[in-house]
Design goal:
Structural class: mainly alpha
Largest sheet: none
Number of helices: 18
Oligomer: single chain
Strand content: under 5%
Order of helices and strands: HHHHHHHHHHHHHHHHHH
Distance between the termini: 48 Å
Radius of gyration: 22 Å
Number of strands: 0
């Protein structure tokens, strides 16, 4: 597909943005969406992603993905897709960069524990936590809480996976419900094309880098991937083209080609859907009734098989399960300690926890833990429970 510089009629236009909740003078050098991107990059939660688990706990090795490197890869793919579809690249990028800000330490193990621990106090959801960070928790400006992002960026952050009206009554989504009373994010509609691009870029990134990390960690080998749809035929082609390179380079080239195949599939399917739906404006995208940016049915089936393989051979591998168990115990112990003795937390977090009843206390403790990196959580656990042999971590 030829990449055009002219913005498509259904692309988001920063000049037509619905603005910010708190009025600010426009930037002299940046569009509204580029300014949002810069605010995410300069935020503290974004920097902390460098020490948060993707699949492997951060200290497992320097070459495995963290939440930060994952987010950067998602952003790169999102910009490429947005360029190919003549969309606003800055908006796609900022949503991609922000999408995982709310993840706690230790990846899904940490999130599962916080969900369980917060069940009595309106739960925990990492997508909602991301929304709370950018609208309230990150305080870098004297005039307002949060980052005061544009409407289109906020919409994409909370709706990149589709409409959210069916989730608005869930306890964990209370913060979004409350915000909805102030500024309508149209929970019943799809988000922009750029937000949808960020969502599929996330799928492309983690499916491919998890294959790469799993190979590098020795959790499975090329011979096992040969029988997996999508991967197998590409691997066979690489081996035919480069029969004399080693396994590591064969794996890298296979992943590189997989990314290209997935991007090609999305571009073809998205072009088909746009034409079929008669999509001409950003509003057409929102009310289309289905996602416009998506994989083909055949690719979706292949990705489901790949995910099943990764769940069996990687995400539930004994080595990963051991890490999950240790991470879960760490989160449980920290939560119990802080709930029992608020003085164990820094002064600013104590102050938050002391305003209100048990629910406010629990939410402050949850927010504090959710913001931790893997290493800081382990260090806090050692501080509170005594020295632990490093080999156990």
């Amino acid at each position: 597909m030829t990449i055009l510089n002219e913005r498509a009629s259904y692309a988001s236009d920063p000049g037509a943005s619905l603005g910010r909740l708190f009025a600010e003078a426009p930037s002299a050098t940046r569009t509204a969406f580029a300014r949002d991107r810069d605010r995410i990059i300069h935020s503290t939660p974004f920097r902390r992603l460098k020490g948060k688990t993707q699949v492997f706990i951060a200290h497992e090795g320097d070459h495995y993905r963290t939440r930060l490197t994952h987010s950067l890869e998602v952003a790169q793919i999102a910009r490429s897709l947005a360029a190919a579809l003549s969309l606003d690249q800055d908006l796609a990028e900022v949503i991609a960069l922000a999408h995982d800000l709310g993840h706690p330490p230790f990846g899904h193990a940490g999130e599962d524990r916080l969900k369980a621990l917060m069940e009595a106090w309106n739960g925990f959801d990492h997508n909602v936590q991301t929304f709370r960070i950018v609208t309230r928790l990150e305080h870098r400006y004297p005039a307002f809480e949060g980052l005061n992002l544009s409407w289109e960026t906020l919409e994409g952050v909370i709706k990149h996976n589709g409409p959210i009206s069916h989730r608005m009554d869930e306890p964990a989504w209370r913060a979004v419900r409350e915000y909805q009373q102030v500024w309508d994010l149209r929970p019943e509609t799809f988000a922009s094309m750029e937000a949808q691009v960020a969502a599929v870029a996330d799928d492309i990134a983690y499916n491919n880098h998890d294959v790469d990390d799993g190979l590098q960690a020795g959790l499975f080998g090329l011979e096992e991937l040969a029988g997996v749809p999508l991967v197998g035929p590409i691997l066979k082609g690489v081996q035919a083209d480069w029969p004399d390179v080693g396994e590591r380079m064969t794996g890298i080239e296979t992943v590189r080609r997989m990314i290209g195949v997935m991007i090609g599939d999305i571009l073809a399917e998205t072009t088909r859907r746009l034409a079929e739906g008669g999509i001409e404006t950003p509003e057409d995208v929102r009310v289309a009734g289905r996602a416009m940016v998506q994989f083909s049915d055949g690719m979706m089936q292949d990705l489901a098989r790949l995910r099943a393989f990764l769940f069996e051979r990687m995400y539930r591998h004994d080595r990963i399960n051991v890490m999950r168990d240790r991470a879960a115990r760490t989160v449980d112990d920290l939560f119990a300690s802080y709930m029992a003795e608020l003085d164990l937390m820094p002064k600013e977090w104590r102050a938050r926890a002391q305003i209100g009843g048990d629910e406010r206390r629990a939410r402050a403790v949850c927010d504090y833990i959710a913001g931790m990196t893997d290493l800081f959580a382990f260090e806090e656990h050692r501080r509170l429970y005594g020295l632990v042999d490093e080999a156990q971590l």
